[in-house]
Amino acid sequence: MSQAHRVIILNEFILQRQTEYPDASGELSALLHHLGLAAKIVNRAVNKAGLIDILGSVGASNASGEDVKKLDMFAHDHFLNTLTTCGQCCGVASEESDDIIILEDDLSRNAKYVICIDPLDGSSNIDVNVSVGTIFAIYRRLSPVNGPCNQEDFLQTGRNLVAAGYIIYGSSTVLVYSTGNGVNAFTLDPSIGEFCLSHPNMRIPENGIYYSLNESYKNYFPYAINEFVEYCKADDKATKRPYSSRYVGSMVADLHRNLIKGGIFLYPPMKTHPRGKLRMLFECNPMAFIVEQAGGIANRWRKCHIRPQT
Ligand code: AHM
Ligand code: MG
After folding, report:
1. How many domains does the chain have?
2. Which listed residue, of 188, 214, 257, 279, carries a Cα 20 to 30 Å from 8's Cα?
3. Protein residue whose Cα sits closest to atom 7 of ligand 1
4. In angstroms, how far apart are the furthest CA atoms of the chain?
5. What's the whole-model pTM score?
6. Would you say residue 235 has pLDDT above 90?
7. Same domain for 233 and 124?
8. Ligand 1 contact, 277 CB (< 6 A)
């Protein structure tokens, strides 16, 4: 078989990459492998969502005060089960858990990584068959091994990320990750049950034509944001404007599109969410890492001169 047609599965790719680092212990590789496994289980549930009793709400709110869906909890439980038993991570912070989860068994307490995870991002789309995703961020712990991890291990700057990625459960299921050496994407081939390398070394196109934000909050955005949106809509042949508006409402799906097609995604600050709605640990840091690794730019909103809106 010619090299061009050879299928490279996720585990093979992870191991190939590991050999590029002679000092690598294999722990990060094993951790990524286990995340891939959990993703397959969650994918199965997402695909069967209409058939099994997994749609709808559990009747409680999560740490961010949002309605918790059954599938959110299912995804949380499955990722947590996998991470708890794999022995390569000493703690988990999940969007669906109020507190950090410290893993204290003999194997885990010796592990050097902690994980922040949004088990099912885009929850508002679950019940209506629109793409959702999982986002993960891996940090090296700051606390000494052979003991419990602590909050400081999780509250690290995004610059300290060792690896990050996401899984999009969409028209096909794709796992995208980076360990700081470019971005690669793997599409799940359901016939063999493997994530296969489909988008090697992803690069965001320089000139995107999409802008993506929830414009219904326009009246609450800072003036500069609305001015920028007007710029996107203005007619200008040279810069191929107007740009097209696309907004799924699942950050994973919106950014995945931008990664492939180019464009800008924004979740601006507003009165109800003065720092924007997206969470730094679970959403912004890992997605910014991926975007930058693919040659894009990620920014957090810094106060600028806000002119009054007329
Ligand atoms: P979630 O993690 O509770 O699903 O919330 C995060 C999601 C993002 O995926 C998406 O970009 C945003 O919330 C959509 O918010 P809105 O409906 O306010 O536009
Ligand atoms: Mg989320």
Report:
1. 2
2. 257
3. 122
4. 65
5. 0.92
6. yes
7. no
8. yes
